[in-house]
Amino acid sequence: MSKRILFSSLIGAVALGGVAAGGLALASAATEPTLENGSARYVAPSEGSAGSLIYTVDVSDDSGIRELKVLAWPASSKLDPTEAELGSAESAKCQSASDDTTRCTYTLKVTKREAAELAKGTWYVSALATAEDGDTTFVPRAATFDVTR
What we know:
Mean pLDDT: 85
Strand order of the largest sheet: 1-2-6-5
Shape: globular
Structural class: alpha+beta
Helix content: 10-25%
Order of helices and strands: HEEEHEEEHEE
Radius of gyration: 24 Å
Strand content: over 45%
Low-confidence stretches: 1-27
Number of helices: 3
């Protein structure tokens, strides 16, 4: 075999190998968790029953969901929490809904005394989803709800 044909064959094999490796890297690229269909609802306490804040969201990731941290805060506070701050927030309860989607629900009971101290008006829910493979997604304003009296 001539050197020219051998050299051309080697270059073709290297180029083909590079394309295949790039395709494999693309196919196996990890995805970050996604949050969809999120909603928050505040129910004020009434005579004889506590109120509640309920935040529900569908979280998806190809590796599964490890946890969802949630923080509710009043817009009037100008708080604007960061991803690092949500690391110590409370966790939602999550249950598998399909192969790659988990339904997470955060419930906070609110007594009459606590409700009287809450800032009226618009509140936000911040969320931090962590996948089984360690990828995270932070949503600073995942949902909005109103506190009324």
